[in-house]
Design the sequence.
């Protein structure tokens, strides 16, 4: 190989190397943009997941509070019912404003 041909081959190799570097740089920039978008998407997804988790926790707490209130109300109702069942019949009639032993059924009244 002669000297001018060697110089031409070196110049061609350098030009090819420069072209490859440009392609690699462009590709790296595309990947960096893609990674940036993916990070933004991930951040948004995490934020939405945190908001949904918070909303779910609030809903759960509200449901548990409603359940506890319903249990307390049921316990109170059961206690009231037990107290009513223990009342003598004549006291219930008095509380209802009736005379003990009076007929309140239509079948016992004369026609």
Sequence:
């Amino acid at each position: 190989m002669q000297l001018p041909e060697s110089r031409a081959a070196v110049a061609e190799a350098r030009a090819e190397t420069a072209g490859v570097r440009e392609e690699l740089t462009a590709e790296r920039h595309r990947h960096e943009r893609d990674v940036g978008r993916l990070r933004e998407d991930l951040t948004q997804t995490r934020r939405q997941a945190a908001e949904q988790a918070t909303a779910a926790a609030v809903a759960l707490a509200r449901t548990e509070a409603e359940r506890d209130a319903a249990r307390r109300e049921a316990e109170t109702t059961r206690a009231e019912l037990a107290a009513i069942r223990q009342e003598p019949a004549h006291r219930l009639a008095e509380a209802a404003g009736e005379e003990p032993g009076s007929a309140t059924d239509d079948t016992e009244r004369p026609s």
Q: What stands out?
A: The helical segments are 3-86, 89-95.
